[in-house]
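User: Please fill in residues for this 575-position structure.
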């Protein structure tokens, strides 16, 4: 929690107002029993009606003052805690945005979602309660003890007995369950992960008739969370009767011994009533602290999870003295690059070297698991190489600011990702200031203009979440248009054309060659037909370059390429 204090700094004025107003409210609450004692002893017993009215109006004024202070304190506490939650969520989101793929794999997407939403909400509620309860409870308890001792010191010995008993009872109930709150948050993580997998994989689940299995899996995760939650709330349910029992026994003891002292003439009735009120205030303060004791472990568990994410620094960062490349040709060079995924036994790429020149199409082909996507992901620096270097425009990518490096790139991933909103907005995602002419031209080159025009609202048609209302080929073409509108120096296509039919694939490659004639184009492909006209084809096998050349030269010199071609084309097509 200490690390999270800095997120409250913008709201220090509000926090100060909460403290002041809570102090006023506590003083008003503590002063009222004393006035009530005066009314009973000096007004009712003596029959002085004017004194009762005068003190009664004074009590009413103090009550109104305490009520106003309470309302404003609650308002400022809510404003402070809500602002704290907003700042914390924004800070956490912006920090997560800097994560590399390694950090996402380490924490998990579902866990990050829970940390940004549920965990922040738990801490926000705890801050709100602390601003009100953790200030008011000690003031009320300490003030109540002082006033109770002032009212009758001997009768105050009951408090000395009751407070330790009440504290031990609360600790005995809540103590064993402190670790359940972190378990509870982990169960929320697991439930979120199962739900997310079920929603994103609904087509696969239905195609394999696994609905019953997924329902059972969700029910199990839901039951685990429910069981932990029931254990937690059982503790809370048990605490309230115990506290009320101790409070009532305390009241009974006070009335019993107070009655004896009244009978002896050493205590007045009004003082006894005031004493009971002070003891109730003390008990109420202890109960508030116990409520906080219930909330703190869960808030602390959430705070630790948030701090864990905030303390995790991305592996890939900009160099201290980074500089942008002055060359804007778009040349890409791999110099003896070796890369291994964390925890992997064998490198994904070994001693890879080649040059992709501007104005040329460089194609990368190979079998499944040969390292094609890994290679192309090293260019935008999604991963850092273990040895060797990836050089763009004469500079190692590790020496360039990530922003300037990625400004040179137009990247289309293997799985097209679209965002909820209009088609126009999705294409402008590549270039925010793009004009309508540029957007239309990019769509035409990407072979997307025809199906966009057929939609009811054209470029203003809405794409649903994940592009669920359009086909895979249409999503891929929109993703290509998004990269084309940027007019980058380097185009990266990670198996982008696999979702397209052969005719659209051929038309797109022809239009792309004309559109990007001065740029460097690097494409990963599975189809031989996609790479057959490339200026340079790089053949990968088990992470190593086993052939570099054109289609014709590789047919004569590279056995791996010959196997790929023979598996896809007939002898007549090869000839």
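Assistant: Residues filled in for all 575 positions:
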């Amino acid at each position: 929690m200490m690390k999270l204090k800095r997120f409250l700094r913008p709201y220090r004025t509000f926090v100060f107002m909460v403290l002041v107003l809570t102090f006023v409210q506590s003083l008003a609450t503590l002063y009222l029993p004393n006035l009530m004692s005066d009314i009973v002893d000096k007004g009712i017993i003596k029959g002085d009606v004017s004194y009762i009215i005068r003190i009664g109006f004074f009590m009413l004024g103090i009550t109104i003052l305490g009520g106003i202070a309470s309302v404003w304190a609650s308002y400022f506490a809510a404003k402070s805690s809500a602002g704290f939650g907003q700042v914390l969520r924004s800070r956490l989101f912006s920090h997560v945005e800097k994560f590399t793929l390694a950090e996402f794999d380490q924490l998990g997407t579902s866990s990050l979602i829970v940390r940004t939403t549920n965990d922040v909400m738990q801490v926000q509620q705890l801050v709100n309660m602390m601003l009100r309860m953790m200030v008011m409870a000690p003031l009320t308890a300490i003030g109540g003890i002082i006033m109770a001792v002032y009212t009758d010191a001997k009768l105050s010995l009951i408090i000395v007995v009751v407070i330790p008993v009440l504290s031990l009872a609360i600790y005995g109930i809540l103590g064993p369950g402190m670790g359940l709150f972190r378990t509870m948050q982990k169960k929320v993580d697991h439930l979120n992960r199962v739900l997310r997998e079920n929603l994103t994989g609904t087509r696969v689940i239905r195609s394999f008739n696994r609905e019953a299995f997924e329902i059972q899996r969700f029910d199990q995760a839901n039951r685990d969370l429910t069981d932990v939650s029931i254990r937690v709330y059982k503790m809370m349910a048990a605490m309230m009767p115990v506290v009320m029992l101790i409070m009532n026994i305390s009241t009974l003891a006070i009335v019993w011994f107070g009655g004896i002292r009244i009978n002896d003439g050493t205590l007045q009735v009004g003082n006894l009533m005031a004493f009971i009120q002070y003891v109730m205030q003390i008990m109420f303060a202890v109960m508030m602290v116990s409520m906080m004791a219930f909330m703190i472990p869960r808030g602390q568990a959430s705070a630790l999870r948030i701090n864990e994410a905030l303390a995790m620094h991305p592996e890939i960062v900009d160099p201290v003295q980074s500089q942008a490349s002055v060359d804007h040709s778009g040349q890409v060079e791999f110099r003896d690059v070796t890369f291994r995924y964390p925890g992997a036994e064998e490198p994904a790429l070994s001693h890879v070297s080649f040059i992709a020149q501007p104005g040329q199409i460089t194609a990368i082909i190979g079998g499944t698991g040969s390292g094609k996507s890994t290679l192309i992901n090293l260019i935008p620096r999604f991963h850092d190489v273990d040895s060797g270097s990836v050089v763009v425009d004469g500079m190692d990518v590790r020496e360039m600011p990530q922003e300037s490096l990625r400004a040179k790139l137009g990247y289309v991933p293997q799985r097209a990702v679209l965002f909820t909103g209009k088609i126009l907005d999705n294409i402008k995602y590549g270039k925010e200031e793009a004009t309508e002419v540029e957007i239309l031209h990019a769509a035409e080159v990407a072979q997307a203009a025809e199906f966009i025009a057929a939609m009811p609202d054209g470029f203003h048609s809405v794409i649903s979440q994940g592009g669920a209302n359009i086909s895979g080929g249409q999503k891929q073409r929109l993703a290509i248009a998004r990269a084309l509108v940027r007019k980058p120096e380097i185009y990266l296509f990670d198996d982008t054309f696999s979702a397209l039919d052969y005719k659209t694939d051929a038309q797109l490659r022809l239009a792309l060659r004309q559109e990007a004639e001065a740029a460097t184009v690097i494409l990963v492909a599975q189809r031989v037909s996609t790479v057959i006209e490339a200026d340079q084809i790089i053949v990968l096998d088990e992470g190593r370059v086993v052939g570099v050349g054109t289609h014709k030269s590789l047919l004569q010199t590279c056995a791996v390429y010959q196997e790929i071609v023979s598996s896809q084309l007939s002898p007549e097509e090869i000839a």
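For context: The first strand starts at residue 332 and ends at 339.
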